[in-house]
Amino acid sequence: MPVPILRQGDVFIASIQLEQTDADLAKLREDLARQVGEMRVRGVIIDVTTLDVLDSYATRMLRAIAYTSRLRGARTVVVGIQPDVAFSMVELGLDLGEVSTALDLEEGLAVLRAQEPDVEHV
Amino acid sequence: MTQASHLPISSDADIVAARQVGRTLATQAGFTGSDLTLIATAISEIARNIVVYAGHGDMTMELCERDGRRGIVVSARDDGPGIPDVELAMRDGYSTGRSLGLGLPGARRLMDEFEIASAVGKGTTITMRKWARR
Questions:
Q1: Is residue A13 part of a domain?
Q2: Among A83, B31, B56, B118, which one is least packed by beta carbons within 10 Å?
Q3: Domain B4-131: top CATH class
Q4: Do B41 and A92 lie within an 8 Å CB cutoff?
Q5: Count of CB atoms situated within 10 Å of the CB of A68
Q6: Residue A85: closest CA among B98, B50, B19, B113
Q7: How confident is the model at residue B37 (pLDDT cuts 50, 70, 90)?
Q8: Is A36 a member of any domain?
Q9: Is residue B24 a contact partner of residue B2, using CB atoms and an 8 Å limit?
Q10: Mutate which of A17, A18, A92, A95 to disrupt the B interface (most B C-beta within 10 Å)?
Q11: Which structural domain, as residue segments, surrounds residue A86?
């Protein structure tokens, strides 16, 4: 099941669901890289609120998505990492590198607004 | 009570299924909160190891008990190429595949017990356990 990408103003919002596979994440990266240009979007929010596992592959893909989107001119913020997931990521030694994070969707939009003051938001 | 699940692992959808089954069993063993996430993540890492390096294999998960403590035991088995240097593979950051090289050493850190046996050309078997807090 592909990850749906919603557009809100100049921002894409992609909510990753529990049952989504490695292939779905790889496809999200490709879809975002293409659509960021087609839709002239400046910011991307990846919402992982419903995920109960962020393992080494998923973490690597989130980083790849953020770097790919950035090369296409859009900033990415990962939102909604749950407390237990954060704890598990620390134990695993995983990190998101330079990828911005925020508590939830609202905070994520605020981060993008702060980075790109001229971004249009609804 | 004996509860066991046996799952074939050959695709990324099987990885998702394995961690969901593992989470359900771990709940039955009495694990709560962050322990459930740690177990599901460890299962995800070793299931992916099968898919990436061996192509296919299988996993068995069951409840276990020792000295009055309940726990979960997860076994993963494949007939893949095997790991030439297990000690090296268990080091953080070592990877020959599409990972961060944190899968096996990470899974070991997330669980209480972790055993790995591998023979080149024959395959790899991993058994890991975690015990619920009393």
A1: yes
A2: A83
A3: alpha beta
A4: yes
A5: 17
A6: B19
A7: very high
A8: yes
A9: no
A10: A92
A11: 5-115
